[in-house]
């Protein structure tokens, strides 16, 4: 039998991040300010350090990874690539299934790849405090870890529904020294205005971003750190796809299709973009983002300029959006409850360079349990979305007899999501109807540009 775990040496940790902008058919549309005109770097200087603003706007293909960042990456990178022999056998599929396991990081997901980089550049710029938002708690834990490693204080606004569903994520962040608040809070104007309107709100990533940005913009000593969506975040995550490519090459394989769950787009961009470089050079490979059918940004959103947060504090970004004040149903894949998506992913989707599918909650848990029973690893609910799509494709291969090679990003483990699995086993989880009227209502509030 061929290898199950395909490993790289620490010396093979990539030395550069890959910037997809260099290979995109068209340059990305610029972010816009409140006056509808493109913003310059100075508009971001109140909340980001210069090095990250440069990366945000860069079109350079390769950006060097600072040595101190690579040094910290060594704690868990290179992450293993697995061949899912046992899952393949259980499905009876001729497809070969590979997965990159990002759950081996200390925080349990792909998020530390950018958290460490962001904390490093902020520290270098003399910043001593960071604020951020978190959905499921994966990003907040990653930044708490990074803050601890680089000597920065971290305050996390955690979406209320996740704060209640995932108390141990909160403890994890506290273990790494971060302060955690349930969002919306009474501490910010954004939080107070949302609570006045809907005191029982579950919260959302969009609302938590409003609170976080408000705080960072109003304090000299504090910067903002975002776990997805922005170009520099996707850039940092490309270490995943570069490693995966090298690992597949080691066993003489190349994927026909690459899958990843897609919330703000960072783990999808992270694994898919290095393969997009090959696609841009004429190589055949399909790149598939998988999203929840209750928050179907790419598959049902409109491609328009919209705010990144619920209240309208961020610059306008051109993206597929369900409307910035859309509050998605309280599914357990908290990291996928975002109204928008990375402008880079959106543009590639719009230009039909990448694909997207939406899957319902129960089917994702069914696939995650199947995966755990054969591969052992218990996936994060977000990762279950990619697993669902891969299992469906592998079953199609079984019907057609096609021996496709499938690769997906196992973006995190689910050890802090067992209450969601509990509810699934008790039959208490539900699928949500496509939230048509809520989306239509939110889309009617899109800013006029
Ligand atoms: C485990 C896991 N996978 C995927 C995601 C989706 O985020 P993104 O699309 O930005 O990678 C998250 C976000 O919190 C996550 O925690």
How would you describe this protein?
This protein has 449 residues and is an alpha/beta fold. Helices cover 41% and strands 16% of the residues. The chain contains 17 helices and 15 strands. The strands form four sheets. It has a seven-stranded mixed sheet with strand order 1-4-5-15-10-11-14, with helices on both faces. Strands 8-7-6-9 form a four-stranded parallel sheet, with helices on both faces. Helix 11 (266-280) links the parallel strand 10 and strand 11. Helix 1 (50-57) crosses helix 10 (231-250), helix 4 runs parallel beside helix 5 and helix 14 (361-375) packs across helix 15. The longest helix has 20 residues, at 231-250. The mean pLDDT is 95.
């Amino acid at each position: 039998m061929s290898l199950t775990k395909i490993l790289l040496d620490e010396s093979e940790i990539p030395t550069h991040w890959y910037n997809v902008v260099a290979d995109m058919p068209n340059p990305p549309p610029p972010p816009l300010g409140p006056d509808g005109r493109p913003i310059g770097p100075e508009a971001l200087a109140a909340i980001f350090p210069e090095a990250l603003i440069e990366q945000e706007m860069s079109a350079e293909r390769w950006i060097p990874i600072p040595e101190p960042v690579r040094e910290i990456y060594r704690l868990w990178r290179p992450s293993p690539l697995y061949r899912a022999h046992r899952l393949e056998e259980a499905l009876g599929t001729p497809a070969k299934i590979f997965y990159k396991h990002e759950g081996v990081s200390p925080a349990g997901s792909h998020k530390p790849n950018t958290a460490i980089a962001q904390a490093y550049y902020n520290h270098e710029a003399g910043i001593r405090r960071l604020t951020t938002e978190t959905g499921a708690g994966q990003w907040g834990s990653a930044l708490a870890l990074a803050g601890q490693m680089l000597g920065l204080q971290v305050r996390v606004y955690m979406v209320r529904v996740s704060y209640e569903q995932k108390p141990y994520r909160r403890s994890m962040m506290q273990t790494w020294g971060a302060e955690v608040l349930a969002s919306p809070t009474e501490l910010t104007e954004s939080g107070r205005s949302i609570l006045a309107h809907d005191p029982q709100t579950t919260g959302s990533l969009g609302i938590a971003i409003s609170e976080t940005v408000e705080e960072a913009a109003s304090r000299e000593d504090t910067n903002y750190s975002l776990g997805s969506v922005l170009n520099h975040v996707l850039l940092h995550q490309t270490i995943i796809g570069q490693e995966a490519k090298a690992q597949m090459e080691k066993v003489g394989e190349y994927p026909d299709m690459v899958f990843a769950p897609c919330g703000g787009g960072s783990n999808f961009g992270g694994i898919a973009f290095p393969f997009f470089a090959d696609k841009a050079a004429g190589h055949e490979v399909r790149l598939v983002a998988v999203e929840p059918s209750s928050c179907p940004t790419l598959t049902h959103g409109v491609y328009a300029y919209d705010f990144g947060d619920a209240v309208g504090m961020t610059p306008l970004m051109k993206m597929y959006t369900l409307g910035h004040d859309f509050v998605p149903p309280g599914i357990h894949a908290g990291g996928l409850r975002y109204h928008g998506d990375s402008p880079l992913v959106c543009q590639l989707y719009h230009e039909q360079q990448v694909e997207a599918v939406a899957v319902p909650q129960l089917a994702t848990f069914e696939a995650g349990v199947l995966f755990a029973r054969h591969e052992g690893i218990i996936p994060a609910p977000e990762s279950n979305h990619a697993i669902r799509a891969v299992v469906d494709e592998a079953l199609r291969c079984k019907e057609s007899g096609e021996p496709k090679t499938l690769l997906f990003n196992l973006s995190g483990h689910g050890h802090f999501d067992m209450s969601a699995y509990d509810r699934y086993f008790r039959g208490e989880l539900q699928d949500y109807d496509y939230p048509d009227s809520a989306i239509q209502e939110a889309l009617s509030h899109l800013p006029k540009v």
